[in-house]
Design brief:
With 144 residues, the protein is mostly helical. It has two domains: 73 residues, Orthogonal Bundle (434 Repressor (Amino-terminal Domain)); 62 residues. The chain contains seven helices and no strands.
């Protein structure tokens, strides 16, 4: 479960950075749910003092149109799943995208003193490995 929490925290940190400021994050959550979240609350969640709620995750993901935490939660029970099958060109594109993101995250982590940047790099590396394993599985299934 710690891995899922680390992954969630890394994704949330990356999404929060996309907003540019904590006020914008709080405003998005408040607009979505009619709550009264403040930038102080968001700061505490970023620093691990408070946990992210499902409402936080949904509001932030919906505002950005990206769903990395929801995706990680959905994949949680799918150990050993073969992943996307089909065209190797599509799988190759997924591998290229994921490895590019992993490389970028590693370079950011190398020059950063933030633990969240290292966690984000680990998440990206795992996603790249998963994409490569899916492509490998596809090739192996053709050979048999």
């Amino acid at each position: 479960m710690t891995d899922l929490l680390d992954i969630t925290h890394a994704h949330m940190r990356a999404m929060i950075q996309s907003f540019g400021c904590l006020d914008a994050v709080a405003a998005s959550i408040n607009a979505r749910w009619g709550s009264s979240v403040t930038k102080s609350t968001i700061s505490k969640k970023l620093h691990g003092v408070l946990d992210w709620t499902q409402k936080d995750i949904v509001a932030i993901e919906d505002a950005l149109g990206r769903y990395p935490v929801t995706g990680a939660q959905a994949r949680r029970g799918r150990v050993g799943e073969t992943g996307p099958s089909g065209n190797l060109v599509v799988l190759t594109g997924i591998v290229a995208k994921e490895t590019g993101e992993a490389i970028s995250a590693c370079l950011i982590a190398q020059s950063s003193f933030e633990g969240g940047d290292r966690a984000r790099a680990i998440v990206e590396i795992r996603e790249a490995i998963r994409a490569m394993k899916h492509a490998e599985h596809r090739l192996l299934s053709e050979a048999s």
